[in-house]
Design brief:
Chain lengths: ~140, ~425
């Protein structure tokens, strides 16, 4: 029995070892993203990403958060959002503050985290994608 | 075996208890009270008002699935459940009030007046009289809650479109503006003439100031005085982590209930009320550090409630149905918090504030609990998981009280059985 468990352990180790190079980066990103979420976003969007009715929108299940327009998400986090806009058909009265102090890496991590938490299953966001979005947003502004 | 039996009995007992609770529409109430669902799924029901014949009007935050933003509910067969339900109106809002044969309702920037016929039906649903318009709506704290004095004056909340009047709202390091320019047109209670059409700011009067956002307010007819419940400022810990821990933010500042006289200043944004020190403290945006006491020119609350619970409705009880202790006391509904996170949330109940000789005794108790739909003793951690969030309060002609929920649109009726 002990032997069997040992075998299983070895196999698992090899398996993990094979995945390590790619997976580790991702897991690291998600851990860092979670930390940023907890200190900067949780207060409004809540631990379960469910938001607060009429005040702060849910990130869990959000079409935009799970969507392809990464540049817009980057812009919301960097510049804030305080407009009367429908989010999945509902309106929210609070203001999302700008967070200019977050680095491109911070934004990539927190976006990766919110796109892969709760029921969300979207692609991770890379540093290159965020940098691209920041350049794009800047030129759009001009 | 014996143990098994005891366990079995216990389970039965628990079942029986929760069975009783279910009978009260899931609410826990003091002995002798019962509750039932007067209506369900009416829409995002904010404040409610009841006519002398018992017809209930609910103001919705958004038009419901029928496309109406004011709903009329009538319990014609008197079984405690509304069966005649209709509606009209396209504008979202919070305020609603029945005054004689008039029904007043507010959007987030105006107050309208409708006329009721002898059956308490609205005569002019599509052509109300505009009483006041042009009130500031910048999304944050935009509920124009209303109440009336005996002389037909309207008192309307114009909430501050800001958390703490920083140069840049909710931005770490941004200083508080002094004087706070928001207070010229918001952050207070304005008084208007309830019988005059087409008023704007210049026709009204700033009756009280330094009130960040008042959703619940009522005129105490026993003492002829306005009472308001303020939503205290948010996020002391997120903006000033070196001054306030998460645990301190969860308890600071108090949600405050004030007895208002004309000209009063409750001190927002310059001070907040610390319920454990029983003191007004200088807000950190204005140089405070959690220890510096605020100026005495600002008003003290009549009652201080735990932080962030969000008082939504105030109702002075004038009925004869409830036991004597409730007479001329105040019910206050609490929506339930969000800014206590990461700590568990609080609120989601209706409190009662006893009054003696026209003054709040300072004590308060939970009157109706269980709206959130979580098991007894379990806390709501994430606000959106609360099944119902108490909002509006109104008293029926028989002395029962009604509580609206703006999440699922339930209206609870609470009565006392002698």
């Amino acid at each position: 029995m002990g032997n069997k468990r040992g075998n299983f352990f070895t196999i698992t180790c090899i398996f993990i070892g094979m995945m390590l190079s790619t997976q580790m980066v991702n897991a690291q990103n998600l851990i860092k993203g979670k930390k940023i979420f907890e200190t900067r976003c949780l207060v409004c969007h809540q631990a379960d990403g469910g938001g607060v009715p009429n005040m702060n929108p849910p990130l869990d299940g959000s079409t935009a958060v799970n969507g392809k327009d990464i540049a817009r998400m980057v812009k919301i986090i960097k510049n804030g959002l305080d407009e009367r806009v429908a989010i999945d058909g509902m309106y929210y009265n609070n203001a999302m503050i700008a967070m200019p102090d977050l680095t491109a890496e911070n934004i990539a991590d927190v976006l990766s985290y919110i796109r892969n938490s709760w029921s969300n299953k979207a692609g991770l966001v890379s540093l290159a994608q965020v940098n691209g979005a920041l350049v794009k947003n800047k030129s759009n502004k001009k | 075996m014996k143990k098994g039996l005891t366990l079995c009995c216990l389970a039965l007992c628990i079942n029986a208890v929760s069975g009783i609770a279910q009978d009260n529409a899931g609410l826990t109430l003091p002995a002798g009270f019962k509750a039932n669902l007067f209506a369900e799924n009416v829409g995002s029901a904010r404040h409610i008002a009841i006519t002398k014949s018992g017809v209930l009007f609910a103001k919705l935050n958004y038009p419901n699935k029928e496309g109406n933003s004011i709903v009329r509910l009538e319990d014609a067969n008197q079984d405690g459940i509304a069966e005649k339900i209709s509606g009209w109106g396209k504008y979202g809002g919070t305020g609603i009030y029945v005054k004689g044969n008039s029904l007043y309702a507010s959007s987030n920037e105006a107050i309208f007046k409708y006329e009721l016929n002898s059956k308490d039906e609205v005569v002019n649903p599509l052509s109300p009289v505009t009483i006041v318009s042009g009130l500031i709506d910048r999304r944050q704290h935009n509920s124009k809650s209303i109440t009336f004095d005996k002389a037909n004056n309207i008192y309307v909340n114009i909430g501050a479109y800001s958390n703490a009047c920083q140069t840049k709202d909710r931005t770490p390091g941004s200083e508080g503006m002094k004087p706070c320019p928001i207070l010229d047109s918001a952050g207070g209670i304005w008084k208007f003439d309830g019988s005059k059409a087409n008023q704007t700011y210049k026709d009204g009067k700033r009756y009280a100031t330094g009130l960040r956002n008042v959703v619940g307010l009522d005129w105490n007819t026993a003492t002829n005085q306005l009472f308001v419940a303020q939503h205290g400022r948010d996020q002391l810990n997120t903006f000033f982590p070196n001054l306030y821990t998460d645990a301190q933010n969860a308890e600071l500042p108090a949600e405050t209930f004030y007895a208002i006289n004309e000209g009063d200043n409750a001190g927002w944004p310059y001070v907040y009320y610390d319920p454990s020190q029983h003191k007004k403290m200088v807000a950190p945006e204005y140089g405070g550090d959690g220890k510096k006491e605020g100026s005495n020119e600002f008003k003290d609350p009549a009652v201080a409630f735990p932080a962030h619970m969000a008082p939504m409705g105030v109702l002075f009880y004038t009925g004869n149905q409830f036991p004597e202790k409730y007479k001329n006391g105040a019910f206050i509904s609490f929506h339930g918090s969000w800014n206590r996170a990461p700590l568990p949330q609080e609120g989601f109940f209706v409190a009662f504030v006893p009054f003696k000789d026209g003054k709040a005794t300072g004590e308060w108790e939970i009157f109706a609990n269980g709206f959130a739909g979580v098991e007894n003793g379990v806390k709501v951690t994430n606000t959106s998981k609360a099944k119902a969030r108490p909002c509006g309060l109104a008293q029926g002609p028989d002395g029962s009280i009604y509580v609206s929920d703006d999440t699922k649109g339930s209206i609870f009726k609470i009565s006392y059985l002698k």
